[in-house]
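Example (one chain per record):
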Amino acid sequence: MGEDIHLLNIREVSVLADYFVICSGSSSRMVKALMNEVICEVKKEFNQNPRVEGEPLSGWILADFGDVIVHIFSPDQREHYSLEELWAEAKTILRLQ
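Predicted structure:
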């Protein structure tokens, strides 16, 4: 399971998407497994394939589903990029720690 899951509504502060989902995986293997599961579930439920960027070993994988962008980080990369701070004007919809 992903750690520190954060759902942001960025609709009013960006044209990139409507929502960001941000979470952490404890290792590169976990980051890869989490992203694979997200892609599998979205494809099954909505028949939608994302554009994927990044590699598990880099510590950051992004899946762009159009209106929703999913970011899965290693803890170090999440702290480094601090997306929650960068998008501080966005409304937090959900935070699971």
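Caption: The chain has a mean pLDDT of 96.
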